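REVIEWER CHECKLIST
Item 1: Sequence provided? yes
Item 2: Single chain? yes
Item 3: Sequence as submitted:
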Amino acid sequence: MSGHSKYATTHRQKAIIDAKRGAIFTKLANVITIAAKRGANPEINSSLKTAIDQARAANMPKDNIEKAIKKGTGELVGDQVEELYYEGVLPTGIQVIVKCLTDNKNRSGATVRHLFSKYGGSFSAVMWNFSQLGSLSVSQNEIKEKHQGYEDLELELIDKGILDFVKEKEGITIYTAMTDMQGIKDFLEKDKGMVVERAEIDYVAKDKIDLSASDQERIEKFMEELEDNEDVNDYYTNIN
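Item 4: Structure as written out by the authors:
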């Protein structure tokens, strides 16, 4: 629903960790810093807990994690990390929202604008076509290990009030109202014993378009450049 596979994004980022470890650590540190602004205790702040878990999975040093938390709480003096959103349109009506976590908004703004221009697009208001929803991901391996069938799990989650259940090759993505996301996460982790790989707020397009074969390669290159930029934390499209 967000217009790109979260699993594909995660896999690609893991594949380049060794080659671009510094950039990956910068991205992860910025996520932790932003999350820590809402509280330094990961047992209370679920966003921080998820960010720390992701950093540990990437073998980010403990000192880096602690510094990022202190930066978010104001205990560590330094450039402040901001959460910024850029909206734009690419040819054939593809709408994109780019989420940046950056300590230099001039740099991030110029870089994202350049990428849109490079691929024939421009900044333009598109937020009106997107809703904010909770998004949770569970891997296929995790579901198999818990001997849980997709259909049974989907029915249980529907009873819990989820909005959508998307099965991908690598696992499932579950969409909820923002207010329901933590409750669904608790159900999956505590009641079902599953590891939730990702729990975040996504921008999901209300009206979507199909991507033509001629556009696919160009759009994939655009997305890869977004993912390689250390200021870009995530992006959302209206691609079906």
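Item 5: Key structural point noted by reviewer: The first strand starts at residue 82 and ends at 90.
Item 6: Recommendation: ____
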